[in-house]
């Protein structure tokens, strides 16, 4: 008998998910990715207009000049110098940087729901959903994202006689406990950093024979978040074996 789950490591710029299917004592990674809730807003921000090596810089702008129309440039020293030399009499204004802290829960939630809907054929085709539980007081925004995720899967997968039969809020403290591979030396001092480091190393061990997903994982910039979503799902599937 097989079981297919969606494991979610809650985040805003790096919301990681991993869909795993277990058959007997073996598992398969069906889908693995990261969602950036802020990327739509960042994409719509003004871009640097300075020309570097015959190409427009296009990095997200940090400043604007009071020209008509406005001229934008980033915080690179070269770009700042070139733009100010070109417009020596114009005043610059620092642009407000888009972050999760200055983006409302309403907007974050609206963007997240749209992104989930775009992936719903994949995300809803599972038996259970496992969502990393967030502390209430430490980061209220992350807790809100968790609740939005939980509600989405109730509404779209559980309440409509869909495939989803269970939605679990999972404690992050447990996910490293099943590791049965070679000992991993860790020099990290902070508990959080230790967990992140070990999560990546344990994931490398578990997927070493999966060429496709191993290559994807090793080349990814956010291995720690991908690893957290995988290890959480792996623990949930095999904790009762």
Automatic annotation (TrEMBL):
Signal peptide: none
A GO MF label: nucleic acid binding
Segments forming domain Mitochondrial resolvase Ydc2 catalytic: 5-134
Pfam families attached to this UniProt entry: Ydc2-catalyt (PF09159)
InterPro entries: RNaseH-like_sf (IPR012337), RNaseH_sf (IPR036397), Ydc2_cat (IPR015242)
Listed name of the protein: Mitochondrial resolvase Ydc2 catalytic domain-containing protein
């Amino acid at each position: 008998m097989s079981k297919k789950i969606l494991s979610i490591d809650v985040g805003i710029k790096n919301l990681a998910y991993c869909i795993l299917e277990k058959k007997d004592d073996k598992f398969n990674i069906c889908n693995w990715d990261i969602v950036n809730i802020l990327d739509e807003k960042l994409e719509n921000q003004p871009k640097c207009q300075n020309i570097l090596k015959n190409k427009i810089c296009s990095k997200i702008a940090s400043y604007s000049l009071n020209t008509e129309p406005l001229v934008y440039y980033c915080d690179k020293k070269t770009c700042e110098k070139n733009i100010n030399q070109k417009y020596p009499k114009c005043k610059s204004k620092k642009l407000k940087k888009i972050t999760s802290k200055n983006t409302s829960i309403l907007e974050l939630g609206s963007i997240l729901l749209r992104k989930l809907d775009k992936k719903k054929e994949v995300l809803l085709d599972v038996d259970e959903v496992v969502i990393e539980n967030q502390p209430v007081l430490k980061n209220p925004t992350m807790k809100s994202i968790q609740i939005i995720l939980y509600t989405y899967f109730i509404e779209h997968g559980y309440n409509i006689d869909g495939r989803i039969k269970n939605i679990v809020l999972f404690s992050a403290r447990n996910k490293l406990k099943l590791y049965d591979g070679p000992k991993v030396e860790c020099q990290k001092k902070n508990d959080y950093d230790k967990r992140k480091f070990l999560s990546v190393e344990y994931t490398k061990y578990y997927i070493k024979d999966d060429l496709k997903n191993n290559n994807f994982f090793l080349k990814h910039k956010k291995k720690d978040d991908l690893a957290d979503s995988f290890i959480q799902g792996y623990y949930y599937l095999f904790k009762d074996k």
